[in-house]
Write a structure and sequence with these properties.
Layout (H helix, E strand, L loop, with lengths): L2 E2 L6 H9 L3 E4 L1 E6 L2 E6 L2 E4 L5 H4 L1 H10 L6 H14 L3 E2 L1 H8 L7 H7 L1
Parallel strand pairs: 1-5
Antiparallel strand pairs: 2-5, 2-6, 3-4
Helix pairs in contact: 3-4
């Protein structure tokens, strides 16, 4: 998955945003075609501190509202699940993303001196 809305942010700025309440989330959208229903996750979005996560997920909520209901039997079920998750701010995956972005710190000066 791609991570959106992190362009131009340094690692320090990203850490600061997360400590102030920023988070990584993804949303769901549901699309139905008669007997087939597809419920899919979006890319991961970075929601800065102070931004409303549910607002960022609105396009996916609207797609689900318009196109999700029509499949039998899973359309209504998946659509309701998508709406609940999206209107609740999406699925928070901040810990997982931060763990995957973690980079080992460079050697400190004493380790460098010992290595020489």
């Amino acid at each position: 998955m791609k991570i959106k809305n992190v362009d131009g942010l340094t690692a320090d700025e990203l850490s600061r945003e997360i400590s102030n309440g920023g988070k990584f989330v993804f949303y769901y959208y549901t699309v139905s075609v008669i007997f087939m229903t597809f419920r899919r996750p979006t890319d991961i979005y970075f929601v800065k501190a102070g931004e409303k996560a549910a607002v960022k997920g609105l396009p996916f909520t609207i797609v689900s509202l318009l196109l999700g209901w029509w499949g039998i039997p899973w359309g209504p079920i998946y659509t309701i699940q998508s709406l609940v998750k999206n209107l609740g701010g999406g699925k928070d995956v901040t810990e997982t993303v931060m763990a995957s972005l973690a980079v080992k710190s460079p050697l400190d000066e004493t380790e460098l001196a010992l290595a020489n």
